[in-house]
TrEMBL record:
Residues 43-225 form the FAD-binding PCMH-type domain. It comes from Thalassobaculum fulvum. One of its GO terms (molecular function) is FAD binding. GO terms for biological process: respiratory electron transport chain. It holds the Pfam family FAD_binding_4. The lineage of its organism: Bacteria, Pseudomonadati, Pseudomonadota, Alphaproteobacteria, Rhodospirillales. This is Oxidoreductase. Belongs to the FAD-binding oxidoreductase/transferase type 4 family. Gene3D superfamilies: 3.30.465.10, 3.30.70.2190, 3.30.70.2740, Uridine Diphospho-n-acetylenolpyruvylglucosamine Reductase, domain 2, Vanillyl-alcohol Oxidase, Chain A, domain 4. It comes from the Bacteria.
Length: 477
């Protein structure tokens, strides 16, 4: 690492952290810390004096106290799968990465209360499995659920694939345990549904990206486990047809739509080209597709009949031109893999800029049409992969470099295209960051598009809780 020689106070603080955590609780060699300092896309590498890996809330609190006393910056980190430079050091000041990857326990499950308490380093998939063993559903579901952690997901308030049914991460939280920037432990870890005793402080830390404290554990709500599930990949002529189908599917199914993902043909092309084992499930290509999944907790609810009725009506109205219904769990997984591998396929394709945007659900089709026309007017040869959670209005907007354009020219050109896209989103009442957060990458956009009163209040909260700016500095504000 090229970090300047730290002052004596920092050296002493690092020594104290090592002693407090023991030999298994820290990493210092640059080769060992590299993955903790590297952004998921592999483009940016930060610098850190140490990677602290506490195994308990008490150890987290001790690390935070030591760092705060020495004025060291702290960068809380979950699975490090973020896409906006929010979970690695980015500021030119001595920093400690505070990884929660040893705090993975499921502390408790109360099936009758439909609740569980998990530590922040617990991977989403592990939480899902633990809930399933208890006969319940942990409703958070992300493409990166095999590596994303509960704490990191709450810190960005990610939504995922099932937001249409269950809501964002915020809506799954009953209580939080958080270590504040001075080392104090905020104990808000309860599993009550009703608790009207003043400010609901847990919401300060959800979506705060580690700038106000370190989430160490969360009490999460559970749902009845699905007893039936039906999944289909449908070919549709355009997003307008998909949007009309969405409302009708919710009505005809009795609002049992669990996921509703929109994908252009580019999704299949990239997945087939870059991801081993993926093949086109339909006999002929379509300009657009919808991946729809219905689920119910009732064993007597005939989802297949509902899905077939939805398809029959949609095909009669020419909203759907072809489709395939998964006949096994393996087929279902194969359909979902097309969608879930888009981030990796896009990364392997290279030369693109990824935007995570949202508009009201009723405006998704109009937004896609206006955005494509606007961007192609500026750069006719760009390639677009615009996919995502149509059911909640969140589109992952990937703008790929024209094949004939040099990489250096594209880097400059892409800034202008993204700026124009964000302007259109603001005009349509949307958000330039639907679920990935702000991090260090989108701070200027936040200043440009957020209401001044909102920024003033955010800065006041930050100053009140973290006046020394030691907790994930350089992120959001």
């Amino acid at each position: 690492m090229n970090q300047q020689t730290p002052p004596a106070a920092a050296v002493e603080a690092v020594a104290r952290i090592k002693q407090a955590l023991g030999p298994k609780g820290w990493l210092e060699d640059p080769a060992d810390t590299l993955k903790y300092r590297t952004d998921w896309r592999g483009r940016d590498v930060g610098e850190a004096l140490l990677v602290a890996r506490p195994a308990s809330t008490g150890e987290v609190a001790e690390v935070v106290r030591v760092c705060a006393e020495a004025g060291l910056a702290m960068v809380p980190q979950g699975g490090n799968t973020g896409l906006v430079l929010g979970s690695i050091p980015t500021e030119p000041r001595p920093a400690v990465v505070l990884s929660l990857d040893r705090m993975t326990r499921v502390r408790s499950i109360d099936p009758d209360n439909f609740a569980m308490v998990v530590e922040a380093g617990c991977v989403i998939k592990a939480a899902q499995d633990a809930a399933a063993e208890a006969g319940r559903l942990f409703p958070l579901s992300l493409a990166s659920e095999g590596s994303s952690t509960v704490g990191g997901t709450l810190s960005t308030n990610a939504g995922g694939n099932q937001t249409i049914r269950y809501g964002n991460a915020r809506e799954q939280v009953l209580g939080l345990e958080v270590v504040l920037p001075d080392g104090t432990v905020f104990d808000g870890l309860n599993t009550l549904r009703k608790n009207n005793t003043g400010y609901d402080l847990k919401h300060l830390f959800i979506g705060a990206e580690g700038t106000l404290g370190v989430i160490t554990a969360a009490a999460m709500r559970l749902m009845p486990a699905p007893k039936g599930r039906e999944t289909a990949l449908l070919a549709v002529p355009d997003p307008a047809a998909a949007q009309a189908l969405l409302g009708r599917a919710r009505e005809l199914s009795g609002d049992t739509v669990l996921a509703y993902e929109l994908m252009p043909r580019m999704c299949l092309d990239l997945a087939i080209r870059h991801i081993e084992g993926i093949a086109d499930p339909l006999s002929a290509p379509s300009p657009w597709y919808v991946l729809v999944e219905l689920a119910t907790a009732s064993p007597i609810d005939d989802l297949r009949a509902k899905l077939e009725a939805i398809l029959a009506e949609a095909m009669e109205q020419e909203r759907v031109t072809d489709g395939v219904i998964a006949e096994s769990e393996a087929q279902r997984a194969a359909l979902w893999r097309i969608r879930e591998e888009q981030a990796e396929a896009g990364r392997r394709e290279g030369g693109g800029v990824a935007c995570d945007v949202s508009v009201p659900v009723s405006r998704v089709a109009g937004f896609l049409a206006r955005a494509e026309a606007m961007l192609r007017e500026q750069e006719p040869e760009i390639r677009l992969n615009t996919f995502g959670h149509m059911g909640d209005g969140n589109i992952h907007y990937l703008i790929l470099r024209p094949l004939a354009m040099a990489a250096e020219a594209w880097q400059q050109r892409s800034y202008d295209l993204v700026d124009r896209l964000n302007g259109l989103i603001a005009e349509m009442g949307g958000s330039f960051s639907a679920e990935h957060g702000i991090g260090a990458q989108k701070r200027e956009d936040l200043v440009r598009y957020a209401a001044p009163s909102r920024l003033t209040l955010m800065r006041a909260v930050k100053a009140a809780i973290d006046p020394a700016n030691v907790m994930n500095p350089g992120k959001i504000l």
